Amino acid sequence: MLKQLGIKHFIAASRSARTNGAVETQVKRFNELVKRLCECDSQIESMLSVFELILNTTTQAKMRYSPFEIIFGHRPRVCEFEELKPAIKFSGDYETYMNVLRNELENIRKTVYADKVEMRQEEEKAYNRQYKVKEPSWSVGQVVLLSDKKVKPNSDVVLSHRPFFGPFYVAQCVKGQPHIGMEYKLVDVKTGRVYPYLVSGDRLKPYDERRIALEARLSQPDSTLSADHEIRAQAGKGETEEERQEEKQQVTRKKNPIEPAIRVIKERKTNGRPEFLVLFADNSLYWADLVSPLLLKEWRLRKKPSRRVKR
């Protein structure tokens, strides 16, 4: 149906209102009309036709034509005394009349398209200058946190709500058209579930596990740190430098019986805990409840999300 009518359907990113500015502007104007023309909510339904007429026949500040003119090729007649552009004369030849009408509509829509492109460029420059926008540099495999400032209704976590959650792997970089920004597909690090929506780059934040561990260590009380230092000092008093070197040499002489892991083959849950079937260098397979971060990352990015069949 959209192809037959010549309509191009673009999907905007979730929770990014600026990616669909035209619709957001109409919603804002609709809310303003409701507040001006309705005394109570019960009157909204009876005033919908008036709102539709106002929105379709009003010319925007930066546009030369109203939505009505773009569709029909002439200004709407809202009163008897309004001066209208002379209508296309009909000489009796339907083909000539349709060609003239088609050319008129095409000229109007070309002008509208040029105005929209120019307006979009000006708005983009102003936005980038105001918020100091930089080109996103996220790549596949990077570990990130996702911004979520929305508080659930009736939730007891309001002041203590954390603005970021995760972590996630960047599984895919999606860009449909050159003039549309890059979107990202995310995979949960712990569960392997794919985040159901594409995410814009401004909602992402780099995740550094070492920094979080360091902050946790720095947040410990001084007594714990001092006790830890005392234990280490007492343990090292009875050892000489020769004994330490000999102990290191003994450790290096021992053969490591553990074969290196190659990759994760399968994942399951036992009593609510995840377990991974790991392939080792000697072609043996074992179930493990803990794997290295690199193996887990490779498994999360390689695993394809299962699709649910709708009945």
Tell me briefly what this model is.
By secondary structure, the protein is of the alpha+beta class.
Number of helices in the DSSP assignment: 9
The multimeric state of the shown protein is single chain
Mean pLDDT: 76
Q: State the secondary-structure class.
A: alpha+beta
Ranges with pLDDT <50 over ≥5 residues? 307-311
The radius of gyration is 32 Å
Q: How many DSSP E strands?
A: 8
Which term fits the overall shape? elongated
Q: What is the straight-line distance between the termini?
A: 24 Å
Q: Tell me the count of domains.
A: 4
Spell out the helices and strands N to C: HHHHHEEEEEHHHEEEH
In spatial order, strands of the major sheet run: 4-3-2-1-5
Could you give a short account of the major beta sheet? 5 strands, antiparallel
Beta-strand content: 15-25%
State the helicity in percent bands. 25-40%
Topology (elements, then pairings):
Blueprint: H1 2-5, H2 21-37, H3 48-57, H4 67-72, H5 94-131, E1 143-147, E2 164-174, E3 183-188, E4 199-200, E5 204-206, H6 209-218, H7 222-237, H8 241-253, E6 261-270, E7 273-280, E8 285-288, H9 293-302
Antiparallel strand pairs: 1-2, 1-5, 2-3, 3-4, 6-7, 7-8
What does this 3D model show about the protein?
There is one protein chain. The protein is α+β, with helices and mostly antiparallel strands and 311 residues long. 40% of the residues lie in helices and 16% in strands. The chain has helices spanning 2-5, 21-37, 48-57, 67-72, 94-131, 209-218, 222-237, 241-253, 293-302, and strands spanning 143-147, 164-174, 183-188, 199-200, 204-206, 261-270, 273-280, 285-288. The strands form 2 sheets. A 5-stranded antiparallel beta sheet has the order 4-3-2-1-5, with helices on one face. The protein is elongated, with a radius of gyration of 32 Å. The two termini are 24 Å apart. 5% of the residues are buried. Residues 307-311 have low confidence and may be disordered.
